[in-house]
Amino acid sequence: xxxxxxxxxxxxxxxxxxxxxxxxxxxxxxxxxxxxxxxxxxxxxxxxxxxxxxxxxxxxxxxxxxxxxxxxxxxxxxxxxxxxxxxxxxxxxxxxxxxxxxxxxxxxxxxxxxxxxxxxxxxxxxxxxxxxxxxxxxxxxxxxxxxxxx
Length: 150
Known about the structure:
The structure is a single chain. The protein is an all-alpha fold. It is built from 6 helices and no strands.
């Protein structure tokens, strides 16, 4: 509940009244409490269950190979975030520079043109008969998850 309220503060800090944060926090705590209580009263099973059972060692929670992999994933995600911020900044600068052109005025007047253009670009890239044939797999998500957890 606390994480949800902090996330709502972060996302809606300029648009949401501060007096509603306590209300949201107590609503989240109350709903989590009632959910746990009802699940305890209705069933005799554990209230916290895992989706997929594993047989990991518990004497030492992380192996060295896992730490190296997690470090590599963290570095890649950090660079990916930096790349996203860089590309977004370039896009914003491009739109500001071309605000007074004919295309820029069309984008400012009609707010649906820009998203439609990006969706059309994404659809053309992922179209199965075009470049998308390299992105699509032959198996469904259910088959892939079954193979992954077998």
